[in-house]
Amino acid sequence: MAKQALILIDIQNDYFPQGKWPLAGVEAAADKAQQLLQVFRQAGDAIIHVRHEFTSDEAPFFTPGSEGAHLHPKVLNENDEPVVLKHFVNAFRQTNLRELLEQRSITDLVVVGSMSHMCIDAVVRAAADLGYTVTVIHDACATRDLEFNGKTIPAAQVHDAYMASLAFGYASVVSADEFLQA
């Protein structure tokens, strides 16, 4: 029987409007993540929070020990919900994430958080490569405008491109409402 876990990726203070690296639509995405978090808590399903800290005080955001690197109040961990500390984009790299999933016999991951084009993309691809069945809740993820070759790519286009790519071969990509109705 499939056993699922909610994985909340980098929903941290620096990504919010008063932080060092604000994302487009982060409040709405965090509200959806909070909604899913409550549903998983009520169901007694596994929940794992992931928090990023860079290893240098010179980092543009998520500096070690800073308030910006803390989990956002909307999605703080409770009781026995572990928080995985990572220093790389991929939440599986040099962390105990896989061990935590194996200890709980998890087969299916539901992924929410930030940034769509970096840490969400990396963890989803790695999880699929490791054999997990992955669902991404697209409206519970956020990103920001990017620049390439002198052009600005709006956050909504960045997000949509990454969600389309993940949906092509790595994950089921659905809205929070679709997931909760299923």
UniProtKB/TrEMBL annotation:
The keyword Hydrolase applies. Keywords: Hydrolase. Pfam families: Isochorismatase. The keyword Ribonucleoprotein does not apply. Gene3D superfamilies: Isochorismatase-like. It comes from Pseudomonas brenneri. This is Cysteine hydrolase. One of its GO terms (molecular function) is hydrolase activity. It comes from the Bacteria. PANTHER family: ISOCHORISMATASE HYDROLASE (PTHR43540:SF1), PEROXYUREIDOACRYLATE/UREIDOACRYLATE AMIDOHYDROLASE-RELATED (PTHR43540). Residues 5-148 form the Isochorismatase-like domain.
